[in-house]
Design a protein that fits this description.
CATH class: Alpha Beta
CATH architecture: Alpha-Beta Barrel
Structural class: alpha/beta
Helix content: 25-40%
Radius of gyration: 17 Å
Strand content: 15-25%
CATH superfamily: Phosphatidylinositol (PI) phosphodiesterase
CATH topology: TIM Barrel
Amino acid sequence: MLLVHGHRGARAVLPENTLAGFQYAISVGADYIEMDVAITRDDVPVISHDPVLRSGQVIRELMREELRRADPAIPELDDVLALAGIRFNIEMKSYPEHPGFTPPPERCAGLLLHAIRGRALESRVMVESFDFRVLRAMRRIAPEVRLAALVEDGDPDLTAVAREAEADIIAPEFHVITPERVAAAHAAGTEVITWTVNQPADWQRLADAGVDGIITDDPAALIAWLRYNP
């Protein structure tokens, strides 16, 4: 069964990484909502794709109340985890080349886990990141939480990348997906979830390749397509 992940909620329909977008994705039947996490100066995980606001302010340099005044639309991670009837794909945004944008990887993992365990959601979440240090830190403190290694481009050996990240799931950008890579990942016991895919022709190619999940900006459209293309 191919699982549908609403990318930042449903950014083709509603503003990304907002409670309204996440609630919409849930209402249309997405299996997961995907979101991006940044951390404030007082260590509150919040939902934002970018570490820097349009004003130029860095989220990590703002207290939560300062961020609320700067952009009231940014929810806390806990606000999203309180939503019912959905599973959660949490991307920890971490930047080795910009260490001032986030806490150290171990602290990122610890803050995510505190939020996850606070809602008893260990069985309903996956944590993904391009920064494999975060994934390895999460593996050490919460082996029960499923992890996904994000891969953007190049000619990756998906199985080797997942092993390096200590991840259960490999999450490549969709252009690098081939049936052979998916088969090799599955043979190694690794799931394949791909991003960000919005066109029916690409959905078909990826479904034929055997991926386990698709992250899309328009979960309602993908769900409708799957209904007629099981």
